[in-house]
Design a protein that fits this description.
By secondary structure, this protein is mainly alpha-helical. It has three domains: 192 residues, MFS general substrate transporter like domains (Growth Hormone, Chain: A), CATH 1.20.1250; 55 residues; 209 residues, Growth Hormone, Chain: A (Up-down Bundle). Helix content is 79%, strand content 0%. The radius of gyration is 23 Å and the shape is globular. It starts with 18 loop residues before the first helix and ends in a 5-residue tail after the last helix.
């Protein structure tokens, strides 16, 4: 029997009395899933030696986790709307905790990769539903601040992961980067069970198995194509075959969705212009953030900084996100989401334009002043954008909306890493006068700096498109409000 604190709440009721307890439970899950995405990266060289595996194989310890999450996010959202968000969110904690324990006990790299898939299933359940639970727990006038706090938790996880991973590996063993999740997962499971109210979704719903399979296979094909294309070239037979595979199933998804009475991705959500626009602008920003993988190469190879110094310099963005996100969320609650999110896009655009001026002579302070603008801009944009997007979704579709939002974030970054990485290499070779033996990272530092400059300009263009769309939407919303007010005015005699 459920505890008194977890009594069922009818769908047509709103109980905000336990909002901060709900936020604490969600924050625990988001922190756990985020930190695990970054803590493992630090351990890759150690895993290569300890498990007697090649680096190419060990990379799948990271890729298996990320691919699993991205392909499942939207599906999880739909399942949550059918069977209850609390039930699936708590299941995510349980699966993630068990997966972490098994990862730590893995005897070979193959077993580790397999258990990372299990861990990714748990993380997908957590990440897909966090936004929905917070949106449902807070009144509209406080939603921006609450979602801003969740953004800060993500930033804390990103900053903490590499540092904690380094400490654990140096003083214990690689197994403990997974074992450390177990007590946190147990605590999180209890917090969710204790504090998140149970909702009773409407009955008579049908799961779209065909659409789910097509979505999963389509995304998997595209993501594997991007991953393969980075190593073998995007025109290689393997990459092209995977892209064709993915596109086929995504087209099949469109066919299936038109005929299923309750599709996996509800088209009703996209009939709301605000939802569609916010999802699109978010995609542009996250594709651009994929260029962040190039920054360490610039700092280490071009400017000659050590690993510790690079870590310190890169921390300016997550720190800015952590500080500004709650502020931007609170401002959006008072001033409206469109104004603040558009301002965030403008600052992000300026940040990438200034980043395009990096050179071989740039100082550490000069880099930080440029790079921090991106963190401030994304923080100003993300919380209001997420709040507005989730606010447009009906309560019974919050799971799908949250899943789509998370999927867009992961997919955008994956596409950005692959596409912008390939663009960088091409521009480096162009600046160097042709292909360089050993790859783009061995090209003259002037060519590498020029390549990063070109990529930054392209990203600025993507963010600029998002800004224009956001301003167009803002003008349309203001115009609609003005017309509505005028229609209500009656001339006096």
């Amino acid at each position: 029997m459920e505890q008194t604190h977890s009594e069922a709440v009818a769908l047509d009721e709103r109980d905000y009395s336990r909002k901060w307890l709900v936020l604490s439970a969600v924050a625990m899950g988001i922190f756990l899933a985020t930190i695990d995405g970054s803590i493992v990266n630090v351990a890759l060289p150690t895993l290569t030696n300890a498990l007697n595996a090649t680096f190419a194989t060990v990379q799948w310890v990271v890729l298996a986790y990320l691919l699993t999450i991205t392909t499942l996010l939207a599906i999880v959202g739909r399942l949550a709307d059918m069977y209850g968000r609390k039930r699936l969110y708590n299941s995510g904690f349980v699966v993630f905790t068990i997966g972490s324990l098994l990862c730590g006990l893995s005897p070979t790299v193959g077993w580790l990769i397999g258990f990372r898939v299990l861990q990714g299933v748990g993380a997908a359940l957590i990440l897909a539903l966090g936004m929905a639970l917070v949106t449902d727990a807070f009144p509209p006038e406080e939603r921006g601040r609450a979602l801003g706090i969740t953004g800060s938790i993500v930033s804390i996880g990103i900053v903490t992961g590499p540092t904690l991973g380094g400490i654990i590996i140096e003083n214990l063993s690689w197994h403990w980067i997974f074992f450390v999740n177990v007590p946190i997962g147990i605590l999180g499971t209890w917090l969710v069970w204790r504090n998140i109210p149970t909702t009773q979704p409407p009955g008579g719903q049908r799961f779209d198995f065909g659409g789910a399979a097509a979505l999963c296979l389509g995304l998997l094909g595209i993501l594997l194509g991007l991953t393969t294309g980075q190593e073998e070239g995007f025109t290689s037979p393997t990459a092209l075959g995977l892209f064709a595979f993915g596109i086929f199933f995504l087209l099949a998804l469109l066919f299936i969705q038109r005929r299923h009475p309750q599709p996996i991705i509800d088209p009703v959500l996209f009939r709301n212009r605000l939802f569609t626009i916010n999802l699109f602008t978010g995609l542009m920003v996250f594709i651009g953030l994929g260029s962040g993988v190039l920054i360490p190469f610039y700092l280490e190879t071009v400017l000659g900084y050590g690993v510790q110094q690079v870590g310190f310099l890169l921390a300016v963005v997550p720190i800015a996100l952590g500080i500004v996100s709650p502020i931007s969320g609170a401002l959006s609650d008072r001033m409206g989401s469109r104004l603040i999110s558009s301002l965030g896009l403008a600052v992000t655009l300026i940040g990438y334009l200034t980043l395009s001026t990096l050179s071989t002579e740039t100082t550490a302070v000069g880099f930080m002043l440029r790079y921090v603008l991106i963190g401030i801009g994304v923080a100003l944009f993300q919380s209001p954008n997420n709040s507005a997007l989730m606010g447009t979704a009906p309560r019974e579709r919050l799971g799908v909306a949250s899943g789509l939002l998370a999927m867009t974030r992961n997919l955008g970054q994956t596409v950005g890493i692959a596409a912008l990485g390939a663009l960088w290499a091409a521009r480096v070779f162009a600046a160097a006068g042709g292909p360089v033996s050993g790859g783009a990272t061995t090209a003259p530092i002037e060519a590498q700096a020029a390549g990063l400059s070109d990529v930054s300009l392209v990203v600025a263009g993507l963010v600029g498109v998002g800004l224009l769309v956001s301003l167009w939407a803002w003008w349309g919303e203001r115009h609609s409000r003005d017309e509505s007010r005028e229609s209500n005015v009656r001339p006096t005699s």
